[in-house]
Design a protein that fits this description.
Layout (H helix, E strand, L loop, with lengths): L5 H30 L2 E6 L4 E6 L4 E6 L8 H29 L6 H13 L11 E3 L6
Helix pairs in contact: 2-3
C-alpha cells in the first residue's frame, strides 16, 4: 500500500491532489475555450458567408447580390453545405483547444474531440471554400 512512512504517505497525497487540481483547471480552460469558439465558411465563390457558434447553431448569414441569380433550391443547398463546412471547422478548432489544454491523448481530450467529430464531420464534398476562425468583425 502506501508503506509505513507517514511523511511518504502525506507527500503522495499532496502529489495526487496537485495532479487532480491541475487536471481540473485544464478541463475548465478547455470548457471556456470551446464555449468561445465560432467558425465561418463561404460558399458560391464568396457570395454566401455563414458563421456558427460552438453549438453549431447559425449565428450569422450574409449574402451578396450574386445569390439573386441562383435558383431557390440551389441557394438552399449551398447555404446548407456552407453551414456544414463551418461546423466542420469547429471540430478542427476543438482539436487545437484540446491539444493546448488537456491533451488529445487524455480521456477528456478524446471524449471532447470525438463528440465534435461525430456531431460535425467533414462534408463529403469538401470544396475549395474553407472554414475560418470566427471573428467579430464583418466580412
Amino acid at each position: 500500500m502506501l508503506g509505513q512512512d507517514p511523511d511518504e504517505a502525506q507527500e503522495m497525497l499532496h502529489s495526487w491532489t496537485a495532479q487532480l487540481s491541475t487536471r481540473a483547471q485544464a478541463a475548465a480552460d478547455l470548457s471556456e475555450r470551446v464555449a468561445a469558439l465560432a467558425a465561418s465558411a463561404t460558399g458560391a465563390d464568396g457570395a454566401i458567408r455563414v458563421t456558427v457558434a460552438a453549438s453549431g447553431a447559425l449565428t450569422d448569414l450574409r449574402m451578396d447580390d450574386r445569390v439573386q441569380r441562383m435558383r431557390g433550391s440551389e441557394l438552399a443547398s449551398t447555404i446548407m453545405a456552407t453551414v456544414a463546412r463551418a461546423q466542420a471547422g469547429l471540430t478542427d478548432q476543438v482539436n487545437i483547444a484540446v491539444q493546448a489544454t488537456v491533451g488529445i491523448d487524455s480521456e477528456t481530450g478524446r471524449a471532447v474531440a470525438d463528440t465534435f467529430a461525430r456531431r460535425f464531420p467533414k462534408p463529403a464534398d469538401e470544396q475549395t471554400d474553407r472554414w475560418e476562425r470566427g471573428t467579430s468583425s464583418g466580412w
